[in-house]
Amino acid sequence: MRALYLAVDGGNSKTDVVLGDDTGTVLSFVRGGTSSPHQIGLAGTRRVLDDLVRAAVAGAGLLPETPIEVVTVYLAGADLPIEVTRLHEAVSSAGWARRSIVDNDCFALLRAGTARPDAVTVVCGAGTNCVGRAADGRTARFLALGPISGDWGGGHDLADHTLRAAARGEDGRGRRTALSASVAAHFALPSVAAVSIALHLGDLPTDRIAELTPLLFQAAARGDEVATTLVARQATEILAQHRVAASRLNLLAAPHALVLGGGVLQAQHPELHNRVVAGARQQAPAVEVTVLDTPPVAGAALLALDALSAAPPAEPRLRAAIANSAPTSPDHSRTSQRDPVLD
User: Fold this and answer.
1) Number of structural domains in the chain
2) What is the CATH number of the domain that holds 82?
3) SS3 of the chain: helix, strand, coil, percent, to 5
4) Are 38 and 75 a contacting pair, CB within 8 Å?
5) Which of 28, 54, 175, 307 is the most buried (most CB within 10 A)?
6) In this model, does residue 275 exceed pLDDT 50?
7) Which domain holds residue 50?
8) Where is the composition biased (Basic and acidic residues) (predicted)?
9) What separation in angstroms does the CA of 8 have from each of 12, 13, 103, 234, 249?
10) Phi, psi dihedrals of residue 74, rounded to the nearest 5°
């Protein structure tokens, strides 16, 4: 008899849930909004996941009481051991499956990007994070609590720096930069000063600042020195995360995979991508660099298959099934996509 699993990947903007079996067959694939405990609290996380699990079971044509062997839940916001423990308790008490496995969403992304047992992933999307694993079961991770834990970079941070550089370049406090004209034009205003005033007064919502990240990479591609400096700083941060994680696992001089994920890295902007690849090979000559090309929920599902000791053919079958599946929302309508630069 086939063993069923539920796999969850929850980020800051969306949550994917896959229901499948140990042959690699995907029975349903649903998508909802954020399930990060940092954004909606633990009780909110459980409510969101419960709705999506019910939708996945119904979408697979199964009865609510159908036994499911394991649920794997990988969420943004599961950073500290106490957070993982509390989330595990909430998931286990929900009764969605006989067994529950819970951890940070970076581990799902890592498994989606590679089957190699020695691997590191650096995620640069709206924010940034890094985890690693070794064949002997050791892991490496960072606090990833934002500026208070030393984090730098990601789409939102880059957008903030883009606006700051544009303002300083316009009024003379900083170096002149093409970002000044680009930022003003993006908001159809005469100057960056006008943009700043509009943001201050609420005429422009502050969440629109995130739209500026693509302007940074466009300016860097045209050779703007200020933009290039910011992109280089982001590359340096990504390489530092890889270096530290690989060193903690004694992998820096050993063959291992480096998986690049998150919208900023998956866009493969040449000014960033080429620096990261060259730098990674310089600090770890045996590294194999790959860019994630599948939804991270595939990693959560593969980790469920690993827990079920599924036969080897299940992995390629699962990867193909997820690549060919379109997620639905709980009401089975297509969910709109966010800006891939940040997600």
Assistant:
1) 1
2) 3.30.420.40
3) 50, 15, 35
4) no
5) 28
6) yes
7) 4-114+294-323
8) 331-343
9) 13, 14, 10, 29, 27
10) -125, 115
